[in-house]
Model the fold of this input.
Amino acid sequence: MLRGMSSPTLHLQFESWDDRQGAYLPVPDGSRVRVMDEDLFSRDDVLAEDFTRAGRVTLGLPLGDEARPDLFFVVDQPDGASWDTRARVAVDGTPGLLDDFRRRSLGLPQRPLVFRRSLDIHVSLRRWDPERGWVPVPEGLALEALEHDRWGEPKAVGYGHTDTDGRSVVQIFDAGEAAPDLSLRVYGGAAHGLPDPWSSESRGQLRDPGEDGHFADVRLASLGTPEHPLLFGMGAEEVRQFAGNAVEPVIDGVDLLAAVEEACRTARHSLHIEMMLFFDDPVGRHVTEHILAAARRGVEVRLMIDVKTTRNIHQLVLAERLWTRFLRVMDDAEREAQLARYDAWAPAEKARGEVDSLLELLRSAPNLTLLDTSYDLVELGVSLPAGMPDRYQRMERALPWLTTARVDHRKLLVVDGRWALLGGQNIGQEYLYARPFDPALPAEEEEWAKWHDCFVSIRGPAVRELQLMFRERWVAEGGDEFPVVLADESIPEHGLFPTLPRHADGVPVRVLRTTPGVAHHFHRHFMAALHGAQREILIETPYFSSPEVRYALEQAAQRGVRVVLILPDEHNDSIDFHYAARLVYLELIGVGVEVYEYRNHMNHSKVAIVDDVSFIGSANLNHSSFYKHYEVVVAIDDAAFTARFRQRQFEVDLAHSRRIHGTEVEGLLDIRLAAKLYLQNVVWRLA
Done:
C-alpha cells in the first residue's frame, strides 16, 4: 500500500449522539472498528481491526501493494448499530473517506481523530404573514431528512422537530453515501394553514449557504450552526391571491386565434407579447400583420421571441428519425416508411423556423420593439457564454457535466394592462387555425396537423401581476424600464397600469411563475396541492417526467383520491417524453391511477384540476418547467369555475382518449434496452 514506508499508525475516536443526554458520547466499549480499503470493482478489503475502549482505538496499518489506497472506517457497536465514515467528516474537517493517504500517522494518542455518527442540520423555518412578514413556524412540526438516490425513491435518514422559535436540529444517522444529496420534508403544517408536507428541495433559502434546499455533495460535520441556522421560508402566501377576476378558458386554436386578433385590434395603448416560438408560416404571417396594424395606429408594442429555439425546433424531427433508425423495435418495411415520412417533413419544418424576413418586418415597424430571448446552452466542454447571469454561473459550476438550458417558455399577451391571455400555445399553424379539427379524424388526414391546447383569458386585478412579470422579464432582457404605477395610485386610463376594479362575480387567481434560480412558485404550489388533494386529481400534460409528481400521484391514489392522467398518444411531438411516460404506466396503473392517451391529435394542453382548484399555463410536469425554464401558470381557486372547466376540458377529452390497461403496457414499449436506460437515467432525472 505505502511502498518504502514504515507502517502508519491510526489514533481514532468514535462518537454517536445520545438523545437522553443531548450530547455526543463515545461509542460503547467493545465496538469493533475495521479499516477498509474501498475498491470500485471488487469487495472492499479489511486492512486492520480492533475494539474500542472509551470510544478510542489505535490501529497499525499494514503495508500493501496499492500506492493510493482509499481508506474508511466501519464501526459495529455491540447494540447492533453499524455505520461507516464515508458520509461523515471528522470534527477537525478530515473527510471520512481518506484517499491518497501518505502520512505516517493519523491523529495522536492524546488527540485522536474524532468521527461522529450523526450529521447535524441546524435550520430555522419561517412562514409568511401578510401583516407581519416572515414569522417563525409553530412548535412541534416534524422534520424528516431525505437522501436522494438516482436509482430509487428518496430514503429517510434523519429526523427532528421545531421548537418555539421555529428552529430544529435534524440529526442524520443513516446517510450511506460518501456524498449524500439531502433535502428536508416538513409535516404537520396543515393545521396552521401551511403546505403539508412541505419540501425544501429547490426552495430558495432566505439565508446562506446555498441557492436552494437540496444539499448536494455534503462533506461537513454540520450544516448551519445553532447561532446561524439555515433559514427557510415555507409559507405559500407570499404569492398573492387576487380576487374578483373575470376568467374564461380559451380552448383550441380557433378561439385563441380569434382572441389574439381581438387583442391586436382593440389595443389602444400597449400590447405586450412574450412567446417562445413564432413561426414563419401562414398563421405566423397572419398574426404578424395584426401586430403591425396595432403598431401603425400608435399602440406601443413590446414583443419577446426565442428566435434560436424557433429555428431549432425542426431538430425534433431529427430526434424522431434517430429513434426510428436505432432505438425502436419495428420491421424493416415499417421503419423505412417512417424514415421516408420524416425526410419529407423535415425541410418544411426547417423552412418555417427561418424567421429572418418576419423579424425584419417587425423590427422596421414604428412603435414596436422586438427582443430576442434566445440564450446559449451551457454544456460539457463549452465555456460560459458572455454575460451569463450569476445564478447560471453557479448552476454550471455545481453541475458542469449537465446542460443548463435557460428557455423562456412562457406564452403571454397583456393588452393595455387590462386583459391577459396565457397558456400553452405558441404562434404557428399547429397552435392557431381558422377551422376546428375533427377529434375523430387522425391529424394526418387534416389539411395540416392541428394540436389540441388551452389558454385562459383574464380581466381583473390579477392582470397587474402579469404585467409586472412581463416587465421584469423585459427589463432583464435589456428592454426599456417603462414606469410602474403603484397599486394604490388611481389612474383609471393609464396605458400600462390602469385601475383594475374587481368583477362582482369574479374568481380568485394566483399567478405562479418559474424564474430560474429565483422563483419556483409553480412547483411549490402544485406539489402542495397534490399532497393535499382529497377527492380528485385530473391532469393533462404532454411532457411528463417528474419523479416528484409521479410519487405524489401514486400516494394520492393509494389514499383513495381519484387520479386521472391524460397524455398524448403516438402524435406526441417529443418521442423522448412519449416513451418516458409509457415507461412508468405500469407503476401508475398498479396503484390505481387512471392513465389515458388522447387519440388522433397532439394534446399540448398543460392543465390540471386538484379538487376545486384549476391550473392553466405554460408549464409541463418535468424538471425543466419546475426549475430551468421561465414559466407562468395561474391557479384559480373557485369551485364553480373548476366545475365548468372540468366539463369543457376534461370530460370532453376523456371521451376522445383511450384508457390504458396494465396488460397493454409491454406492447406500448416497442423500444430497445438502450432507449429504456436513456429514459430512466437522463429524461426522468434531468429533462
